[in-house]
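Morning F.,

Quick status update on the modeling queue. The single chain you submitted on Monday has been processed. Sequence for confirmation:
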Amino acid sequence: MGRELQPHELVERSLITKFRKTIWRPFVEGVRRYELIQPGDRIAVCISGGKDSMLMAKLLQQLQKHSDFPFELRYLVMDPGYNAANRARIEENAALLQVPVTIFESEIFEAANSTDRNPCYLCARMRRGHLYAKAQELGCNKIALGHHFNDVIETTVMAMFYGAQLQAMLPKLHSTNFPSMELIRPLYCVREEAILHWCRYNDLHFIQCACRFTEAIGASGDGTGESKRQEIKLLIRELSKKNPNLEISIFNALHAVCLDTFPGYKSHGEAHSFLESYDRAEE
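Structure tokens below.
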């Protein structure tokens, strides 16, 4: 009779058995398709304490064990001003899942909450800057963020509805402010529904964003609060009832953009018009 598996071992086993099709395979597919990890990489796995980043940490941990080439992982937790209960929950989950985190503090929540003009954007930019700096300090050449499949399509729809532009979220990009640093998104092909199922199956409980704007979502009664992202999430969910293929259609559309049909587009920050090549098309 074999020994009883520890909690973290049960979670790890579930990833390659119960959730092999819905989480493990899409994760590996995304890493390979977009060439997110290279031999010799030292990756800072950025953990917010939420479900997405903690799953990402476990997936990368397992991938490292079975990889054909060596790469290093550093697990970073930035405390932007969590209350004591949320900080404790993060530490407890990291211990439970056997993720050796390095925690450092910042005052991002205080700065972001002091403004009512796009506080989520400000918070995200400040978080990323702090994470890049800490990762670079630890000798890392990449940071990994937990954005998933649904984040990708929701960002696209939000940009069109509220930003008046067709803009997607890349699976990886070079940092403009930290030379030689790169950002990767290993959960790019993993759906949020699968992540939620994984949490329930393993009886795992993670923190939410924990800022005052996220708390407003729960108190609003309609599931949206002040968040445009939540509003778009609910819209896509409602439209998917009539078109079950809606989400994958949006995702696939990002990989099949027909520039020849657009009257205008931007490349490297520079605006272009179809008129630039319109007359040459007849030659």
